[in-house]
Structures are given as C-alpha cells and as structure tokens.
Amino acid sequence: MRRVEDSERRLKRLRIHAQRVTEEVFRSLPNDLRKFADRVPVFFESAAPPPDEDLLGCFEGSSLAEEAAGPEDRPRITIYLEAIDSYTEGDPVLFIDEVRVTLLHELGHFFGWGEDEIAARGLD
User: Fold this and answer.
1) pLDDT for 99-124, tens place per residue?
2) Of the candidates 59, 97, 104, 117, which lies 20 to 30 Å from 19 by C-alpha distance?
C-alpha cells in the first residue's frame, strides 16, 4: 500500500512541476506564437502507451499549416511524466528542463515545423 501512495504522491508532484513549466513556457512565447499556442491543450499522462513507453511527449492532430478534417484532428499535446522522470534519472532540475524542451518541441510540430526546423531552433 505504501508503494502505491508513494507512486501517487510522486506523480502528483511531477504533474505540478510540469503544469508550472507549461504555464511559464506559454507566458514566455512571443505574442505572435502565443496566440496560436493558446489553442492547443496540453495533457499530462503518467506513461506513453506501448510500444512507445520511452516517448517523452506527443503532438496529435492538425498543425497550423493543415486544415482539421473533424474533431479527431483537433490539436493536442501530451507530456509523459514518468518517461521524462526516468530519462532525467529522477533529477528535479533536469526534469523541469526536459519538460520545457519536450513541450517546445511538440509546440514546434503544432506550428508546422518539421524535425529539421525544430532542431535548428535547438528544440530536439
């Protein structure tokens, strides 16, 4: 029972940190990008579904450059808390930095940037 409580407490702490970082990232965006970024909801999940358990974040839906065909194409970003925590080996400072980088990377996909443009901006 204690391990479940500890795990729940840890996930709650990770979610709080990730939400705070997300708010800071959105506030720090230039106005011309922020007005578009505000359209995309960010969700926090404990882990990515198999077979992508190591995935840190995911953008789904239509980018700004595409037209949404229907409700299933609405943009959304998901941040995988346990994957980032594992990737940063439980270091809280590295966790916060990786949430920021992952969120910015996924926002880049929403803006319609390809992997090369995302990398050129240092968000890979």
Assistant:
1) 999 999 999 999 888 888 877 876 65
2) 117
pLDDT at 1 > cutoff 60? no
CA quadruple 114, 25, 81, 78: dihedral sign: negative
This prediction has a pTM of 0.87
What span, in angstroms and rounded, lies between the C-alpha atoms of 122 and 103? 13
Instruction: Write down the H helix ranges in the chain.
Output: 2-28, 31-37, 81-87, 92-110, 115-120
The C-alpha atoms of residue 38 and residue 79 are separated, in whole angstroms, by 16
60: left (phi over 0), alpha (psi -120 to 50) or beta: beta
Nearest Cα residue to 57 out of 11, 26, 13, 99: 99
Q: Which residue has the higher pLDDT, 76 or 50?
A: 76
Backbone angles phi, psi at 77, to 5 degrees: -120, 135
